[in-house]
Amino acid sequence: MHSPTKKYVTYFRVSTTKQGISGLGIEAQRNAVRAFVQDPTQVLAEFTEVESGKNNQRPQLQAAIETARKQGATLLIAKLDRLSRNAGFIFALRDAGVDFICCDIPDANTLTVGLFAVIAQHERETISKRTKDALAAKKQRGAKLGSPQNLTPAAIQKGQEVRQRNARENQQNRQAMMLSTLLHKQGHTLTSIAEQLNAVGCRTRRGNQFYHSSVRILLNRALES
């Protein structure tokens, strides 16, 4: 439960200009903040970021952080969710030097958020290295990389979609496994771990939410690896 004397600076985010103009997504985030902070006088300022998928600049986040720092307020994130997979956002949040709370996962802290950043960075480096090593090995065996006759636009697009889906599912599974292991070592119950995984947008390989039974499978898989 939040303190009635605490002051907040809120940060909202939508991923496209269209969403920002229409208000879609923003109202749901404002509702989450209103449910979390019932006294509107505790909110000193609010910042809304409208960013495209290719834009990693977040001036509104930096402005919100700076305002919270100057006012001695807590940065209130309406919805962490998929932002937990965005390394740039995570590093900025982790290194902000201000307290923060996420409405959809109040128990998140710098350790939890920092873990996602480390995992995301590790996964990118690992995938890049494996790809380079595999291509180098093929080239060393004398293989000609690429099959021009098969590189139709449809084939290229399908190949990209498959690679992206496999990488995404593999990365999400690794993130869920590592976060589950960390939370389990901290004494969290299987149900609590499942709730936190779901809150930050993690899903099982089949796209379902986590339950205590699926968390148990993750932890057992982590022991076997």
Topology:
Layout: E1 8-14, H1 17-22, H2 26-36, E2 43-50, H3 59-71, E3 74-77, H4 87-94, E4 100-102, H5 110-140, H6 153-185, H7 190-199, H8 212-224
The average pLDDT is 76
Order of helices and strands: EHHEHEHEHHHH
Unreliably modeled segments: none
Characterize the overall form: globular
The first-to-last residue Cα distance is 38 Å
Strand segment tally: 4
User: What share of residues are in beta strands?
Assistant: 5-15%
Largest sheet: 4 strands, parallel
List keywords for this structure.
single chain, 225 residues, 8 helices
Would you kindly provide a written description of the structure presented here, covering whatever features stand out?
The longest helix has 33 residues, at 153-185. The chain is 56% helix and 10% strand. By secondary structure, it is an alpha/beta fold. It is built from eight helices and four strands, in the order E-H-H-E-H-E-H-E-H-H-H-H. Strand 3, helix 4 (87-94) and strand 4 form a beta-alpha-beta unit. It has a four-stranded parallel beta sheet with strand order 2-1-3-4, with helices on both faces.
